[in-house]
Each structure stands twice: as structure tokens, then as C-alpha cells.
Amino acid sequence: MANTFRNNTGDVIFIDEKSMQMEDLMMTTDRKAQTPFWDISLRQHYYEGIHVAQCTINVHQDIHVVSGMDAPIPGMVFVQQGKITAKGHDSSLTHRFAEGQHNFFRNPYNPQTSVFYQQQDLQLLLVGFTPERFLQLAEDAGPSLYQTANNMVAGKDWEQLENLPVTRQMQAAIHDIHTCRFQGRMKDLYLQTKALELLLLRFEQQEQPECPAPKKIKLSDTDIRKIHAARECLLADIHHPPSLGQLARLTGLNEFKLKAGFRKVFNNSVFGYLREHRLEMARQLLKKKELSVTAVAYETGYTTVQHFSKEFSKHFGVSPSRMD
Questions:
Q1: Angle of the 143-154 helix axis to the 184-207 helix axis, nearest 10
Q2: Same domain, 283 and 229
Q3: 106, 162, 272, 292: which is deepest, by most CB within 10 A?
């Protein structure tokens, strides 16, 4: 799909007939390009379904880019220096990135619209995953990453609402990527490790607001009724549960009160509660001995029997195939 570049007055200044697609990412190469509107240097590395791109741009004028719809390449963008604006496909949210912020996108390489402001030495790091690799990684990850993968498979909204700050641990991993001294297969393994580290740090950071609610939080009777209503909405369709944002809108609570209130009322996070409900439901089904382990996994909302088995064994201390 083509990318159309416009200036501030809306005039088309360039059309790139071929946007960066999956086949362009599945290679390790360095690229440089000089145009009247920007000079760009791109160093990209690909290994086993993981792509890392280090990008430096000198932008000579404000550029507004519109991209056609492309296949999902789930990944992250880290703004190390400078500022940009981006809006994902099928999204109502416009993300304004300042220096030291990051976010997760359906396709960070080709957002629907983006604005590159006039600036020198804009520095971006992009980390992307083939959909198959991303789903594989999500099987053994925490609730936020797993929920994102589930939403992606179901064709639901899985965009992250807010940009998050780049933490010191992330900065260290990014620095390691930029200063990698290895070559060949050692470089492949090293950059893969750093990309996975950034992915886990990202979703660990996303889960942090779901820590135990402060004891000072006060819930009115109306709030408590809404928290119980949120639980009913959450469990109404365990195969396609709502996101936190959707759940907040359905119940009339803001996300902070929803997460903190849910923790206070039910002594669990929103998706922690959903996970335990699924597992208890699975245990009851297995005890009846009417369905196979695979059937129980899908009946309780799991996308793969492997992930179900690991979750079940971890929670109950016995594999589902050995349930009495």
C-alpha cells in the first residue's frame, strides 16, 4: 500500500508506492535516503520472527504521512529523541509522543497517519514481531500481554490507550542494542534477547497500575454496584472478554476506579479474576469427565491447549490430564 507525504498546506510532496511490509522486515540491512523533506538512516535486524529497527531522521519541514491498511505487525515504538504524532489504523486515538515515551501498536511501521515535525536528529527504536511469533510469546506471559494477544486473534481493539515513559531498565536495554558488539549468530541471539526484554518490560509496566489498591480508596454504594456489574460484564462472554477501557465505559467507571475498586472488592485484578474463573470452570468440567482436555481448554476461552495446560498446572499443581 502506498504512503502519501504532504506538507502543512496539504500539498502532496511525495508518494511512496510500496510501504514497509512483512517481507521488507524479514531481513538484516542498513538503509539511507536523502530527500528534499528529510534525511533518514535505518539500521534493521531480523531473526526468528523478531525485528529491531534503529532509525535516525533529520526532518527539514513538517511532514504529514498517510498509510494504507497493512497486515498486523504487533510491536513497539520508542521515541528516544524528538517528537512525533501517530494514529493507528481503525483507531480513534491520536498519540502525541514526546521524548522518552513509548507505546504498542498494531503496526508501528505503518500507522494510518503520522506527523514528523521539523527537527534534527529524531531518534526512534522500533521492535516488531510476526503475528505467529507474538502469539507464541504471549502463551507464557503475564495477563496484559496475553489479553492483547487474545484481542488480536479475536479481531478486537487491542491498542494501548496511553503512551508510557521509557524506564531506566528500558533505556539500558535500548543502549545495549545501539552498542551491540557481536556479529553473526551471537548478534542474532543478543538482539533477540534485548527485544524480548523490552517487550516484557513494556507489559510489566502496563500491569503495574493493577497493584493492590491503596487502603485510602473510598467506594460509594453506587461504585460497589458498578464493580459488581463490571464482574458480570467480564464473565458474560469469557471467549471475548471486554478490554479495561470497554469495561469502564460499560459500567460508567474510570479505569483507575475500576481497577482499584475491583481489587478492593474481589481481592484480585480484573483479568486475574477472569483467569481464576476460567480455571475453576475448567476444573469442574474436567471432574465431570465428559470433555477432553482440548475441548475444555476451548470451552473456557483459551486459544491454545498448551497455554491452558501450563496455566492449569501452575494454579492447581496438577496437569489437567491427571485430574481425578
A1: 100
A2: no
A3: 106
Q: Kindly state the cell numbers that stand for 277.
A: 474463573
The Cα–Cα gap between 272 and 270 comes to 5
Residue pair 230/270 in contact (Cβ under 8 Å)? The answer is: yes
Instruction: Report the amino acid identity of residue 238.
Output: I
Read off the C-alpha cell for 242: 471486554
DSSP state of 322: G
Domain shared by 253 and 187, yes or no: no
- pTM equals 0.65
Residue keyed to cell 471475548:
240
Quickly tell me which residue has 481489587 as its cell: 263
Residues 229 and 310 in one domain: no
Measure the CA angle with vertex 205, ends 267 and 150; round to 5°.
Answer: 75
* Domain identity same for 217 and 201: no
Q: What is the pLDDT of residues 29-38, one digit of tens each?
A: 999 999 999 9
Check the CA dihedral 198-203-207-209 and report its sign.
Answer: positive
